[in-house]
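Example record

The entry below shows one chain as it appears in the dataset: sequence first, then structure tokens.
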Amino acid sequence: MSSDAPDAEESRVSGTESFKSFISGGVGGVCAVLVGHPFDLTKTRLQTAAPGTYTGAIDVVKKTVRLDGATGLYRGIVPPLLGITPIFAISFWAYDAGKQLIFSLTPGRKSDKLSTAELATAGFMSAVPATLVTAPVERAKVLLQVQGQGQGEQKYKGVTDVLRQLYKEGGLRSIYRGTTATLARDGPGSAAYFAAYEVTKKYLTPAGSSPADLNLGAIIVAGGTAGIAMWAIAIPPDVIKSRIQSAPTGTYTGFLDCVRKTVAVDGVTALWKGFGPAMARAFPANAATFLGVEASRKILDKLF
């Protein structure tokens, strides 16, 4: 019996750490939504509106505020606010699980530090389970964000109504439309995201110190850098995701069909629509994310 005790203790510690990652990730997600949603709405409207609707990001903001007031910039916030909490919770939990998996698969390694490539691999792995929640949340969010751009009657009254109507129209297949595009965005994006954060933290850590002891300013820089790294490569699949999720049923047969039709009609530059708002959002939203993650993690470390 005594020989089983170390394994049981190790399992308990591992479970506690996973719990901390899950909770702190959720806190970070809420922070990200509160800071970043107006930027995200602007990006989505630029990506999905007919050519000529807006002259740029500032024009989106001006027209949105004129039609709906300042609160219009937070249209569609309920789906991400409800969904981002579990999404980020799952993502940060899966990232830590991915790192542990890499360690377990390389028992003869000479270093207890993961390489940048290994961190990126763990980051990519984190997107796989998170996509199961992200895809339907993004579908509802996009549909709520793109309505209200004109004076016509609005089809959806809220997130519950969106999901109800989508299920009635096409079942789970309709709710999960855009899943492939979501993973195409979040897989590589998460790889860049977590790797950039870890590398930046290491770079900012003074000699002889630990990254865990970095001040708030350093966390802000590392978190913001992570966001920029992600969105620098995530915009093209994000454009395709937004178009697939907002288009009427039958418009596209899949991811590649949407790419082909988008480029054919609007040119290759259409794949970068929304780049400005996305990059403007990337630094503050993700700085807020990691501030929330690190602050809540320190509290949890004291409690458990």
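Notes for this example: Residues 1-6, 8-13 have pLDDT under 50 and may be disordered. The chain has one domain: 19-297.
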